[in-house]
Write a structure and sequence with these properties.
13-stranded antiparallel sheet; 13 helices; elongated
């Protein structure tokens, strides 16, 4: 069995842990050295101010601390092996830590310009401080699946823990003269994790086996906690210390610079950092990546903690909940997309959250951060001159406000004391635009600096645009609309399961690409799908397989659409809406998702081209699905090696390999005029063209001709099988007796057909010579043409 039980499914997590395994030790040593230096300073500085009775010289227990933070690790992988049976491995993992705790009495040490605070102290000092109280939680959820030629596996794992904040060490160091400082939040030493997990393994020709993997889940979560549990940063470069610099470089979770402000009565620390690490293991194509996102806010004060908070609010809460970004209209009628706006207000949290904005004038600085810069505005538009400018920008209303002091590409600054009158108007320029909005507030009369947070989310000092609680840069609103939010957070998900009972799930377009959408002319949608189409722009349904077709002659719309025997969601596009260059062997020709976003890209996907061809064919055939194996430039009509194009009769990745589907309607007209008269002629024409279009498109989406029951093929086998399946040819007897039927569907698994055979007679059969031997009828299973449908193109 070639399935890698857990290795592939959690490969990325193992990789990250390996990269980072030395980092915690380096930082712990650094903190020990820092504490030793502080202790030495205290011993050599006898002339310190008088401290509270019982405390060592230089210590002061009048300090208060409030800490809130979040750290998430979102991992995904989508890998295909290069050799062997091309096994695939997909996984998605969501790991998060959240802390919100405080103490109204902690000890800090001051020596001249140096300030140091540590919340975990020696036993003889614990009586002078109050332990941290609040919440510190861990949540983890993961899914992984592998498939190969001899089986498949599916794993589900989850876990959680509640930590005691009293065991968490928060340390802070600051030099007032140099205005340089650092902080660290260390994980508790003793903790327990509750975990659940199961693995279902299916091998070829064997029943599935389910295993309990709770221990593995616990080990995986503990490994992630070892990597993610320590948070640290500085507000200055640390290049002078090679060990610390190396720790920063090797760390996937830390490395950004903190913002440390000295306030009237203490210090305020803010920190946000995001980093993505990617790797493609040897022997695979595809991508494995993990994105770490951290947000921290720490307030240290020797006065009563301020009761004022800055809240960043959407101007319209409902509009914000429903906001799904849009770009300029794909018909060119507008130059920008939809907009959303925010403002800041001040509340007194000790007074029931009362709005006190009017009595506390402030200055505000809005900042757009982590803004996407995707190529174009959707997956296939524009094809030329597609820019990579920021996808979220200040609306013209933002720049025209009288209360605006200054602005840059990513900042708006209000006039002094006029922050309550300045709103942030933001416009989207991409159908998958993403970014965060921050608001830094200075209370002009109070001398207090605040980072605004979302209402009811004191740990989030920013607003995601759009709302994205599962951190995959896809609007939660859209995910909920199409039923994906509770199913997966993996932006690379491609397991479209409808229509069911086809060769495999998926259509090659990732969840992100189906969300970002396409420019199309029109659609043929399967019943029950959640596709959305407006003003020429399409967002797909991740549960339904999608395929594009260029139908300039209207053959598909006239003869295929009313039957849609494939049950796929079809989308009509012009050649301007795909890469089109007439060069059949060019791997970019017919490429649809060309404005790719590399981190959420599986492979090039292709459109089919269906066209009406003039002339008659010498062999009486009326259609071809042409492969590019020996075809050069079909538009230039260059000679083919043997004078005839290569027809596709079903093969791997058929859409990728079918360069064009041709239907010779003049041939049908000639046949109709020689075999029918009057209305029968028109009926015959319509039936044959419909059957031909459906038959040739069947080849283009992976269906072979019918095979004999023993799996062999010959000219006779083409006439065998379920009698009204479009992939079947009529026999000579059926043609001779005008028994042609309307063949407009693909036979399915579970259907049967009957074969009438003439048993042998004469010597050796047991029957007298010349005796009549009755015909025999044998029932066979269908060729399951519907189950052969596969429209997904793989890498390579």
């Amino acid at each position: 069995m070639k399935i890698k039980f857990f290795v592939l499914s959690f490969l990325l997590l193992l990789f990250i842990a390996g990269v980072s395994q030395q980092q915690p030790g380096n930082m712990q040593q650094f903190l020990k050295d820092a504490k030793a230096k502080a202790d030495a300073i205290k011993k050599s500085s006898p002339n310190q101010p008088q401290q509270p009775p019982g405390l060592p010289q230089g210590d002061d227990n009048s300090w208060k601390i409030m800490v809130s933070f979040t750290r998430t690790a979102i991992a995904s992988s989508n890998l295909t092996s290069i050799s062997g049976c091309r096994s695939t491995s997909k996984s998605s993992n969501n790991f998060s830590l959240q802390g919100n705790f405080s103490s109204d009495q902690v000890i800090a040490f001051t020596n001249g310009d140096d300030f140091q605070l540590i919340t975990v102290v020696d036993d003889d000092l614990k009586k002078f401080m109050h332990p941290l109280k609040g919440s510190y939680t861990l949540q983890s959820m993961g899914h992984a699946s592998t498939t190969s030629c001899d089986g498949s596996s599916n794993a589900e794992e989850s876990g959680n823990s509640n930590f005691d904040p009293a065991a968490v060490n928060v340390s802070f160091n600051y030099n007032k003269k140099r205005k340089e400082g650092d902080f660290q939040i260390s994980q508790p030493d003793n903790y327990s994790i509750q975990a659940n997990g199961k693995l279902t393994v299916h091998t070829k020709d064997n029943p599935s086996v389910t295993l309990n993997t709770a221990d593995h889940a616990k080990a995986s979560i503990e490994m992630m906690f070892a990597v993610c549990g320590i948070i640290f940063s500085w507000n200055h470069p640390v290049t002078k210390d090679a060990k610390i610099e190396q720790a920063l470089v090797s760390s996937p979770v830390n490395g950004g610079q903190a913002s440390i402000a000295q306030t009237k009565n203490g210090y305020e620390i803010s920190y946000s950092f995001s980093k993505t690490v990617s790797e493609t293991p040897t022997g695979y194509t595809g991508n494995s990546e993990i994105t770490y996102t951290t947000s921290v806010h720490i307030l240290i004060t020797n006065q009563q903690p301020p009761t004022l908070e800055a809240i960043i609010d959407p101007s319209d809460a409902t509009a914000y909940q429903d906001f799904i970004p849009e770009g300029p209209k794909v018909d060119g009628s507008t130059t920008d997309g939809n907009s959303i706006s925010f403002h800041v207000r001040i509340i007194d949290k000790k007074n029931g959250g009362k709005d006190v904005t009017s009595s506390h004038p402030f200055t505000v600085t809005y900042t757009l951060d982590h803004v996407s810069t995707y190529k174009g505005i959707c997956m296939n538009y524009p094809k030329q001159n597609a820019d990579e400018q920021p996808d979220l920008r200040w609306n013209r209303l933002s720049k025209a406000q009288t209360h605006l002091k200054s602005f840059t590409e990513n900042t708006l600054v209000s006039n002094t004391r006029e922050g309550d009158q300045l709103s942030a108007y933001i416009t989207s320029y991409d159908y998958a635009a993403f970014g965060i909005l921050k608001a830094q507030v200075h209370l002009d009369d109070d001398g207090l600096d605040l980072d605004a947070h979302l209402k009811d989310k004191p740990e989030e000092f920013f607003a995601n645009i759009p709302i994205d609680e599962n951190h995959n840069k896809i609007a939660d609103k859209w995910e909920k609309d199409v039923g994906m939010y509770s199913k997966t957070a993996d932006a690379d998900f491609d397991e479209d399961e409808f229509p069911k009972n086809q060769k495999r799930n998926g259509d090659g377009y990732t969840l992100f690409e189906e969300y970002r959408g396409f420019k199309v002319k029109d659609n043929l949608l399967a019943s029950g799908s959640h596709e959305s189409f407006k003003n020429g722009f399409l967002r797909m349904d991740p549960d339904y397989k999608d395929i594009f077709i260029n139908d300039e002659d209207g053959l598909f719309q006239t003869y295929y659409a009313s039957y849609n025997p494939s049950d796929l969601c079809w989308h009509y596009i012009d050649k301007d809406e795909m890469i089109f260059n007439s060069r059949g062997k060019d791997p970019e020709n017919r490429w649809t998702n060309f404005n790719k976003v590399q981190e959420h890209f599986y492979a090039r996907q292709y459109a089919l081209i269906l066209e009406k061809k003039p002339g008659l064919l010498p062999d009486g055939e009326v259609g071809h699905a042409l492969s590019y194996v020996r075809l050069a430039d079909y538009d230039t009509k260059e000679a083919i090696d043997d004078g005839m194009p290569v027809t596709t009769h079903g093969f791997d990745q058929a859409v990728k390999n079918t360069i064009v589907v041709d239907v010779y309607v003049e041939e049908v007209t000639w046949l109709a005029s020689h075999q029918r008269t009057g209305q029968q002629k028109q009926n015959y024409y319509n039936d044959i063209v419909a059957g031909t279009v459906i038959h040739e498109i069947g080849h283009a989406i992976g269906i072979t001709h019918h095979l004999r029951p023993d799996g062999s093929t010959d000219s006779v086998s083409l006439t065998l099988g379920v009698t009204d399946c479009s992939m079947r040819y009529e026999s000579k007897d059926e043609e001779m007796h005008n028994m042609n039927m309307l063949l407009v569907r693909y036979c399915k698994k579970g259907e049967t057909w009957k074969e009438v055979v003439q048993p042998p007679s004469g010597e050796g059969t047991g029957a007298p010579p010349g005796a009549t031997v009755p015909l025999q009828t044998i029932t066979h299973p269908s060729n399951n043409c519907y189950g052969q449908i596969d429209i997904k193109s793989d890498p390579g």
